[in-house]
Description:
By secondary structure, this protein is of the alpha/beta class. It contains eight helices and five strands, in the order αβααβαβαβαααβ. The protein has a five-stranded parallel sheet with strand order 2-1-3-4-5, with helices on both faces. The longest helix is centred in the middle third of the chain and has 17 residues, at 83-99. It comes from Trifolium medium. Residues 12-161 form the TIR domain. InterPro entries: TIR_dom, Toll_tir_struct_dom_sf. This is TMV resistance protein N-like.
Amino acid sequence: MASSSSSFNHGYVYHVFLSFRGEDTRETFTGHLYNALDQRGINTFIDDEGLRIGEEISQSLLKAIDESRISIIIFSKNYANSTWCLDELVKILECKKEKGQVVCSVFYNISPSDVRHQRGSYQEAFDMLEERFEDNKEKVKKWRMALTEAANLSGWHFSNG
Length: 161
């Protein structure tokens, strides 16, 4: 009988890819989740370089998503402020559809409904994105659809306080 870890290795470099907004959760929830997975021998990709404003998502990040068996999306207050996070999300959902990647959603200090319907901080983010990308409305539409789809997946809701 094959071990559970060997079943992950069919074409995958990582067991898990973590998609998160660094400024919101790197030092808290995401950091703790990464450490817990790592301690159990689960090969997890975490972007530890951070993002500079206006920088486009790197090909290495897209490749890491493609090479992961599972993606965990950690939605937080400022997730939608990052075009990098939104591009990751679109890629994750493409891998779910095309390769059967397992996708789990975590809602950290944010309501799943706010993510699903782009309300609250997500509405504020999209107001700015629609202005910034007024010449590329299709991209903004794709991000909105991805948020709605991901928020409709089963997941976990965590709140501090």
